[in-house]
Amino acid sequence: MKIFLGVHITAGASSFLMAPIALVTAKGGKQHRRWGKVYLWSMGVVAATALPMAIYRPVLFLALVAVFSFYSCFSAWRVLALKDLPKGGSAKPIDWAAGAITFVTSACLAGFGAFKPAIVQNMGIVAIVFGFIGMGLASGQLKSFIVKPKEKMFWWYTHLGNMIGSYIAAWSAFSVVTLSRFLGSRWYVWLWPTMVGVPAIVLTMAYYKRKFAPKTRAAAA
User: Fold this and answer.
1) CA nearest 136: which of 180, 75, 83?
2) Integer Cα distance of 161 and 96 in angstroms
3) 82, CA 20 to 30 Å: which among 4, 12, 28, 162?
4) 133, 130, 114, 132: which is closest to 122 by C-alpha?
5) Helix axes 93-115, 60-78, angle to 10 degrees
6) Within a domain: 37
């Protein structure tokens, strides 16, 4: 477990550094793709090491959170291969499986938080919030596989929003590890990154929707 913890911390620190670099580099450029991929793999290692540690302790809450946290990053990467959905393209089995697993585990997280909070370390409110976020994320992706998006740039919004979402999850974990030493494991220690990050995602999406909106020509006088 000490080895897992060491790898987990190293990968987590790497993800904190790589995400801002990927965000500030030119979108679609070589550097953006390179550092974005490093961030993806870092988050994968974070989730892969979090699961056995959570099961070993055991801390079911952290295990379930690890699933949807990684899915946010994974789906942001996979959507780049699904740009043809509006033209009749299809999702791959890995996309369906990842979305279904995330939806089920997130539903369990929300359900336990609401009705059996002791199972998820009495993290009732936090488990419900994270559970609904995970269900919303997974159901949105699964829906796009069935009802094909009409928005041409849907992949851009999904990629950017989900990547930022995964970074919020990373900040949530960092907040708990550091701030809980002083404030205890209170709900706001977990949720403040979400309360700050979600409005940031909404504002960012609004900016790019205005940017990508078709330019209307002024009517001839």
Assistant:
1) 75
2) 20
3) 12
4) 114
5) 150
6) yes
Domain that holds residue 28: 2-212
Q: Is 92 within the bounds of a domain? A: yes
Q: CA–CA separation, 156 vs 80, rounded Å?
A: 8
Q: Over the stretch 14-64, which tens digit does the pLDDT of each residue have?
A: 887 887 888 777 777 788 888 888 888 888 888 888 888 877 777 788 788
Q: How do residues 115-144 score in pLDDT, each as one tens digit?
A: 988 888 788 888 898 899 999 999 999 999
pTM of the model: 0.82
The total number of structural domains in the chain stands at 1
The length of the chain, given as a count of residues: 221
Q: Do 162 and 136 contact (CB within 8 A), yes or no?
A: no
Question: What sign does the CA torsion over 167, 168, 173, 177 have?
Answer: positive
In a domain, residue 220? The reply is: no
